[in-house]
Amino acid sequence: MQSPPTSAIDLVLAHNLGYAKQYSKAGLAPEPTRHLAVVGCMDARINPITSLGLAYGDAHILRNAGALVTPDVHRSLIISTQKFGVREIMIIGHTKCGMLGFPEAEFVERLKGDYGQSERAPQKFLSFTDLEANVHTQLEIIHSCPWVHPEAVARGFIFDVDTGLLSEVK
Amino acid sequence: MQSPPTSAIDLVLAHNLGYAKQYSKAGLAPEPTRHLAVVGCMDARINPITSLGLAYGDAHILRNAGALVTPDVHRSLIISTQKFGVREIMIIGHTKCGMLGFPEAEFVERLKGDYGQSERAPQKFLSFTDLEANVHTQLEIIHSCPWVHPEAVARGFIFDVDTGLLSEVK
Q1: Which among B18, B33, B53 has the least Cβ separation from residue A19?
Q2: What pLDDT is attached to residue A94?
Q3: What pLDDT is attached to residue A150?
Q4: How far apart are CA B159 and CA A14, in angstroms?
Q5: Residue A21 lies in a domain
Q6: Cβ contacts of A65 on chain B, cutoff 8 Å
Q7: Domain containing B81 — which CATH number?
Q8: Mean pLDDT, contiguous 10-residue spans, chain A (170 residues)
Q9: pTM of the full predicted structure?
């Protein structure tokens, strides 16, 4: 009897062999067919693709800690809108986000204590204290981002991890 | 008879109402149960969750243009490994990536011509010319990232968008 895989990565690789046998998505175009990009959180409880009913080829999905429009997301959205024809952008914060009310200063002090100061360490972790206000802030950041296609429309949402429901931030 | 929704966002919101009615994932903990984080590309043809066989709550998913370990991904991986207990990291590049061989200088010239120069525009779009070498570079960047938990192991992969198969970059 074979030993079970020991690491999470080995387990997902074993799954992927079966996935590939059933796979039938060859030849899709890189341009998202719904002209949509989604900016969401990395949170493990969220599946943007199923919660939005997206299929292979439909939308660009961007994810980071907090669903924030960082310089990296700015870079990606310029490519998305200027190279791949995306014209709608969703910013999706979520309830119970780890970045909401996160005591960032204490976290940094602990890391400095454990590992020492470093010039290459992040200056800020970008925690926030008001979920809805933070989504508004991200929309404002997008609107001030140079080179994102001017016809691209951005709207903000909150995903409730306990109900699965999206609500628009007005 | 009601008019059909006109925008991609309105369509996904209509879908989400039905999704939420079937939703049964309330109360999951924020810590990824597989202690796994995945860094993948925003590409619309990729579904990291299904291709890896992940369930709700299993893993942090990070996505940007190119599956690159940018400062934003660095920030997110510190949070992932130091706050949420993640100990394995997958970097997943993919075949036919839009960032592979992307003529970045021409792209920037076009944007400058169309919209003007801007201090807030990205300095670089981070295109690359060798898919496998680029995954190696991202692994090297992770290893040089201060404050990512020292016990976190990173491994690199390429996802084939035509076969659905992951292969490890050795």
Answers
A1: B53
A2: 98
A3: 96
A4: 14
A5: no
A6: 75-76, 79-80
A7: 3.40.1050.10
A8: 74 97 96 98 98 98 98 98 98 98 96 94 96 98 96 98 97
A9: 0.96
Give the nearest chain A residue to B49 (CA atoms).
Answer: A47
Structural domain boundaries, residue A156: 26-169
Overall number of domains in chain A: 1
Question: Does B53 contact A161 at a Cβ distance shorter than 8 Å?
Answer: no
Mean pLDDT of B37-52: 98
Beta bridge partners of B85: none
Min Cα separation A139/chain B (Å): 15
Q: Contact A37/A69 with Cβ under 8 angstroms?
A: no
Q: What is the enclosing helix (H) or strand (E) of A76? A: helix A71-82
The predicted pLDDT at position A5 comes to 58
Strand-pairing partners, residue A154, are A89
Q: Flag if A144 and B53 touch (Cβ within 8 Å).
A: no
- Does residue B5 form part of some domain? no
What pLDDT, on a 0 to 100 scale, did the predictor assign at position A3? Answer: 56
Residue at B156 is within a domain: yes
Which residues contact residue B38 at a Cβ distance below 8 angstroms, ignoring those fewer than 6 apart? Answer: B48, B52, B59, B60, B61, B62, B89, B90, B92
State the nearest Cα–Cα gap between B86 and chain A, in angstroms: 10
pLDDT at B114 over 60: yes
Question: With contacts defined as CB-CB under 8 Å, which chain A residues touch B61?
Answer: 42, 44, 63
How distant, in Å, are the alpha carbons of A157, B123, B152, B167 from that of A119?
35, 20, 21, 34
Where does the pLDDT of residue B123 fall: very low under 50, low under 70, confident under 90, or very high at 90 and above? confident
ipTM of the complex: 0.96
In a domain, A33, yes or no: yes
